[in-house]
C-alpha cells in the first residue's frame, strides 16, 4: 500500500495536465489497491485464506435455500466438497487452524 501511495503521489506531482483525469480512474485505483492488499494479506496468512475459502463455500447453500441467489446443484455440491476438504486440512494440520484470542 505504501508503494502504491508513493507511486500515486509521484504521478500527481509529475502530471500537471488535468485533461487525462477521470473519476473512473480514481475508483479503479481504489479497487486495485484494495484487491492488492487483500491478496497480500491472504498470501501471508494461509490459515486466514483457508478459513475465508471455507466460509465462502459454506455461504453458498443458505443463499440458494433462501432464494437470494440461485445456484446449480453441482455448485452447491462442489462448495460442500471444498468446505469439507478445508475442514479436514485444519484437523490434519493444527497450525492451519485460524487462531482467535
Automatic annotation (TrEMBL):
PANTHER family named among the record's database cross-references: PEROXISOMAL BIOGENESIS FACTOR 11, PEROXISOMAL MEMBRANE PROTEIN 11A
GO CC term (a single one): peroxisomal membrane
Biased composition, class Basic and acidic residues, residue ranges: 1-15
Record-linked InterPro entries: PEX11
Residue ranges of the TM segments: 71-93
Protein name: Peroxisomal membrane protein 11A isoform X3
Keywords recorded for this protein, A-Z: Membrane, Peroxisome, Peroxisome biogenesis, Transmembrane, Transmembrane helix
Region (Disordered): 1-20
BP term (GO), one: peroxisome fission
Keyword Glycoprotein included in the entry's annotation: no
Lineage of the organism: Eukaryota, Metazoa, Chordata, Craniata, Vertebrata
The keyword Repeat is annotated on this UniProt entry: no
Pfam families: PEX11
Locations listed in the record: Peroxisome membrane
Organism: Carlito syrichta
